[in-house]
Write a structure and sequence with these properties.
It contains 6 helices and 3 strands; from the N terminus they run ααβαβαβαα. It is mainly alpha-helical and about 130 residues long. The chain has one domain: Rossmann fold (3-Layer(aba) Sandwich), CATH 3.40.50.2300. The protein has a 3-stranded parallel sheet with strand order 1-2-3, with helices on both faces. Strand 1, helix 3 and strand 2 form a beta-alpha-beta unit. Helix 1 packs across helix 6 and helix 2 packs parallel to helix 3. The longest helix is centred in the first third of the chain and has 13 residues. The protein is globular. It starts with 5 loop residues before the first helix and ends with a helix. About 25% of the residues are buried.
Length: about 130
């Protein structure tokens, strides 16, 4: 998960737990931490690539688009599924991420129950 908002990290963890998805969840709190994680994964032969990356677009240090481009250029992580989880409803953001091959786009809702629906989205992506 690449997310800088602590409340959203909590809600994403909660949604995954409620959906019953077994997960070893790593959190990068900004774009630079995400780059470091990807680079470490690429260089450590014992490190497996993530099955799924939950990626916010509005991040400090590096944007979500930059992180997505880095994932797609990574020897090991480029096959990881990527779900954009963002507050952005911009058609441009949707188009840009689609061009880079994301597997889904989830706009963060304001209500708890609506936010918990991301667990089902994650479950579907992992099952596909």
């Amino acid at each position: 998960m690449v997310e800088d908002n602590k409340a959203d990290v909590f809600l994403l963890r909660e949604a995954i737990l409620v959906a019953g998805i077994p997960a070893d969840l790593h959190v990068a709190r900004d774009g630079e931490e995400a780059f470091e994680f990807i680079n470490h994964t690429d260089t450590d032969e014992n490190e497996a690539s993530p099955s799924l990356v939950l990626l916010d677009l509005n991040l400090p240090k590096r944007t979500g688009i930059e992180v997505l481009e880095h994932i797609k250029q990574s020897p090991k992580c480029r096959e990881s599924r990527v779900l954009i989880v963002t507050s952005s409803d911009s058609d441009q953001d949707k188009a840009d991420t689609a061009k880079l091959g994301v597997d889904g786009y989830f706009r963060k809702p304001s209500g708890y129950d609506a936010f918990m629906k991301i667990g089902d989205v994650v479950k579907q992506l992992l099952a596909a």
